[in-house]
Amino acid sequence: MHTPEPAHGNEPSPPSPAWRDLAMPAITLLVLAGAAHVAASHWESWQPRLAAVGAAAPALYLLLWLVVVPCGFPAAGLGFSAGFLFGPWAGTSWAIVGLLLSGVFMHLLGRRWLRPRVARLVATRPRLAPLERAAAQGGVRLHLLARLSPLNYAMVCYTLAAGGARLRTYLLGLPGAMPGLVAYVWLGAAAARGVRVQDGAEWVRLTVPLVGGLSLLVLAVVLARFARRTWRGSE
C-alpha cells in the first residue's frame, strides 16, 4: 500500500540553535571586557585627558551616537562607555538621549535615502525579512519586542523604517531598547569602579560584571526567540 509522503511546504522552520542567539551578545561582552582591560591598564594617562575635555564630553559622546551607531556599531558599546566614563546615573541619562537621537536619525535614513539598500540587505537575512514584512502593520508591541531582541540596534531601526513603519509607532517602540542599554551602562560603571578602586579582593571587583554579563546572555536568548515568534505571527 502506498503511503503518502508528508508535505513539507507548510511545516514551520525549525528554531535556530541556542548558540546562534548567544553568539553576538557573547562576542559583544568579550569585546567590552577587552576594552575595559585596556582602559584599566592606561587609566592613569587617560584621566587628565578626560578632565581636559570637561563639559564638551557629553556633546562629543552624543555625536558618536549619530556617527558610529548608524554605521552598525553596537549600541551596547556606547552604553558601556557611558557607564565607564560618566558613572551609572549620568551615563544612563546620556546613553538614553543618544539612543533616541540616533533612532530618529536612522528612521529618516531608512525611510528615504537608504531604503533600497536596506531592502536588498534584509532579503538576505532570514531573521529580518519577517520583521520588515510586519513593520507597517505591526503595533507598538511588535516594535518594542524588536528593540528588546539582541539584534543589532541600527539594523532593526533601518528594517522597521524601510518596512514602512509609521513614525508614531516607531518612536513608541524606541524605549524597548532602553533596558538592555541601561544594563550595559551599569556594567560599564561597575567595570570603572573595579579599575579605580585598588584595594579589596580581585574576585569581589569582578563579581558584578561577571554576573551581569551572564544574565544578559541568558536574557538575550529568551528575548530573541520570543521576539521572532511574535513578528512571525504578525505576518
Quick gist of this model?
The protein is mostly helical and about 240 residues long.
Structural summary, described in words:
With 235 residues, the protein is mostly helical. It has one domain (21-29, 57-233). Helices cover 75% and strands 0% of the residues. The protein has 12 helices and no strands. The protein is globular and about 50 Å long. Mean pLDDT is 76; it is low at 1-19.
DSSP summary: helix tally? 12
Helicity, as a percent range: over 70%
Number of strands: 0
* Strand content bin: under 5%
Order of helices and strands: HHHHHHHHHHHH
Number of domains: 1
Label the structural class. mainly alpha
Distance between the termini: 40 Å
- Which oligomerization state do the chains in this entry correspond to? single chain
Uncertain residue segments: 1-19
Average of the residue pLDDT scores: 76
- Largest beta sheet, briefly? none
Shape: globular
What is Rg? Answer: 20 Å
Layout of strands and helices, then pairs:
Blueprint lengths: L17 H24 L1 H11 L2 H12 L7 H12 L1 H24 L3 H9 L5 H7 L4 H9 L4 H10 L4 H7 L4 H19 L5 H32 L2
Helix pairs in contact: 1-12, 3-5, 4-5, 4-11, 5-9, 5-11, 6-9, 7-9, 8-10, 8-12, 11-12
